[in-house]
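Late entry, evening session. Most of the bench is empty. Finally got around to the prediction I had been postponing all week. Sequence below, unchanged from the version circulated by S.P.
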Amino acid sequence: MSNEIAALRHQIENSMSNTNEEKIVVLQKCVSKMDKLFQKSEKEYQKQLEKMKQEIELKDKVMQIQLKTQRAELIARTSAEKQKQFEDVVNNLEVKYIKMLEYHEAQIYKYIHN
């Protein structure tokens, strides 16, 4: 695009020795070409902006998925820890009640045999 602008500049500079009518024609053509270049560059920038927008949206979705995955892992890990704690409490209670039953059985056996 800068080559095209340089060519237009060169064309304008070369037309300076022409008559006023020729200069006007050359300048009108240059303005028309500049307008087309502007529209072309505007379209290119719009495409770039749209592409960047899509990339940002994609990155955002990836980050949301990563966050949800981490959250799910944390929930699973927490649930596993809570389950283990619950099992430990149940096991401790089971041991405690077995000891209590053994103690009571021993007391009953002692009472019966004495």
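Two things to note before I forget:
Residues 2-113 form one domain.
Residues 34 and 92 are 85 Å apart (CA to CA).
Will write this up properly tomorrow.
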